[in-house]
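Sharing a chain and its predicted structure for anyone who wants a worked example. Both blocks are below, sequence first, tokens second.
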Amino acid sequence: MTQASVADLLKLNTCAAKYLTPYPMERFIQASVNLKTRTVDCCRNGCLASTHKRVQQNACDACGAPRYKADGKPAKKMTYWSLTSWLAHLLGDPVIGKSMLENMAAARKAAEEGADGMHDYYHAKNFRLLLDEGLLGGVCVMLNCGTDGFQFWRQNGFEGWPIVMTPLSMNPDERTRNKYQLLTAVTPGEKNLWTWSPFFTPLRRS
């Protein structure tokens, strides 16, 4: 969607329109924010996700737990939220989108001029390398990936690791707010995962 069309939808979000039945309300929400999701099979104990070279495996490398139940259905799945959809929603906002594009332009200029020192945008060595190779054309948003383990319910021991992306192209006072932290997945795993690589693979195509 173009920035203009998304801006129109955001204006509708703040209008006084009222929907008296759930069906038109659901359609309105789906038209306003479309965060695509995909599911991936994972170990029932949360050790690994069945991605990349593990797509054809029927058991977990770490604990040996079977991938499928007796009825042939996956023992456990985890959901990924599309990173592209998250960013499209931010870029479609007339205020946030403009700020992100301006910060990216400033970062490119700083990298091209060899700027040094502390700045509010990403322009370090890796950024300059990508710029020299022509990989930062058009709309390009640098991201910081972070995660932390948590225990949701102490009674049943449910644990997980939320995978969160922070857009570095936003102004500091914006990117540090919780509402701009982009949740891309929550692993249904233990506090100490066996390895991170299988859980990050789906994010490359989101």
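Comments welcome. The longest helix spans residues 96-113.
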